[in-house]
Structures are given as structure tokens and as C-alpha cells.
Design goal:
This protein is mainly β. The protein is built from one helix and nine strands; from the N terminus they run βββββαββββ. The chain is elongated.
């Protein structure tokens, strides 16, 4: 069984036991968080829209961290313009504990 959950404006495939790295959430390590379910797939088939809203996905925050550094390098030829900049996006790792009906 798996579900498509939404966080912010992004959608993620969640299965029980999987660890998903969401964009930073305001939660501490060990906290339980709920996500709205957009679609559920199980033995009986696929449930969308109104049927899927009867489900919820519950997870536990396992880590707060940052992704690998992304280097941004801007360069203009023949103008002696160079700018190097780095960015590390924060994330929250969540282990999915259950996908069940509300």
C-alpha cells in the first residue's frame, strides 16, 4: 500500500516504513506529523479525490538537516564579472508510520 501525500506545493510517494525528506517543517525530532493524502493505492485498487480524503498519513520526524551544497556561478564573458555563491537547502526527514482511514 502506498499514498501520494502533499506538503507545501509538492507531492511525495509515501509507503509505510519509508523515510522522506520534506522541505523544512516546524517540528522537533521525535514529533508526530500528519499529511493530507491525495491518492491511495492498495489491494482493492486506486482511490482518488474524495475517497482519498478519508485517509491520513502519520509520520515521525527523524532528522533536521541540510542537503548537499549547490554551487551557483555567474559569469559574463569579456566583462571580468564573476560571482560564486553556494546554497544548502534545509530539510526534515520523516519516517512514515501509518497510512490509515481517519
Amino acid at each position: 500500500m502506498y499514498a501520494i501525500v502533499e506538503n507545501g506545493s509538492k507531492q511525495y510517494k509515501a509507503e509505510v516504513g519509508s523515510v522522506i525528506k520534506f522541505e523544512k517543517l516546524n517540528a522537533n525530532v521525535g514529533d508526530k506529523v500528519e499529511f493530507p493524502v491525495l491518492m491511495v493505492s492498495d489491494e482493492s485498487g486506486v482511490k482518488l479525490a474524495e475517497e482519498a480524503k478519508a485517509y491520513k498519513a502519520v509520520g515521525e520526524v527523524t532528522e533536521q538537516g541540510k542537503f548537499k551544497k549547490v554551487v551557483v556561478y555567474k559569469y559574463k564573458a569579456k566583462k571580468n564579472e564573476r560571482k560564486k555563491q553556494g546554497h544548502r537547502q534545509p530539510f526534515t526527514a520523516v519516517k512514515i508510520l501509518e497510512i490509515s482511514a481517519k
